[in-house]
Amino acid sequence: MKKKAMTQMPRALYVICLVILSFFMISPFIIPVVLAGTVALALFPLQARLVARNWPKKHAAALITLLFTFVISIPFLFFVTKGTLVVIDQLEHFSVGEKIQSQGVQSVLLTIKSEIIHAVQKVTDKIPLSNFLTESRLDQYFKSVNIFLLGFFQNFATSLPMVILFLIVMIFCTFSFLKNAASVRHFFQILFGFNNARMEELVHIFIRNSRQVYLSNIITGAIQSSIVATGAYFVTGVDWFLTFFVTLIFSFVPVIGASPMAFLFAVVAFFQGNKSGAIILVVVGSFTGVIDNILRPWLASSGESKTPPIVSFVFVIGGALLLGFPGLFIGLLIGSIAYDTLPIFWQEIAVDGKKSFVDLVNFEEEISKTEIEKH
Fold first, then answer.
1. Tens-digit pLDDT profile for residues 228-268
2. CB atoms within 10 A of CB 117
């Protein structure tokens, strides 16, 4: 036993040192590499269909990567960039308190702000909370939120050159992962020590969760945001693109989703005296909620998503606070994968621990029998 431990120690030290050095060298690109791996997993079923139709694996991987680059990645980058700049412009105008000449997002925000202050003041007349819920204090709270949101989107805007570099790395890694899918799977199967059945279960979970993040969330979010933005545009006259962009961001946040945006504009329409418009937006919000509860689970592999909404919510908010806008995707991805895969690894560790304990007991019994036979 001691000899075996002495033999294993240099191997363990070698592995630990090599892993630390590897992570140190690729640390600037860990996020795009991980995202590329999950994107490749989400697109792998499409590649499998092409290979089943006698496509060479390399050609299928190249075609899928090109489609991912020019149909999804580049348009999505331009969309996010434009949306970020529009939000920054609106927040900057709102922070300096410019006068509003026409209906738009700023007028809606000012309406919401004034109505909230008015409602809070009614409450404070009955409850002694006037020390920290005065109009000036509430105005200060709104400014603090505005400053936080402005910094959130400005940080992403200033990091756009790095985002483009990350996107390039991600595209090349996606092609490599798709092309060498079998080798990558074999590598991790050896690394984890899983049998074929356990590895198949793990791969299925990764594919399901990757599809949930990149396919179901984007498609359902785009549909919900289009419905909410269109309804809000015709009822309140707000900017369609900006409403669509903000609603799409909220659609990625579990528990909250896109529906509250429609209800928020319904409140605005009610305070503006447009009761019929408020009813329409309430119906729109309810319909987007139905879409969220039916279409999203179906796109995430027939409703197999197991991650509780509160877990996803915490990871999404944490990812956004740590990494900014990209954290909305990364946080949701890490949360769902961690929740679904950690029990598998824990079960394997428990089984290996039981085997080791049984082997140790058997070894001690054999030693005892040998000593008894000697005596």
1. 889 888 888 888 888 888 888 888 776 677 888 888 888 87
2. 18
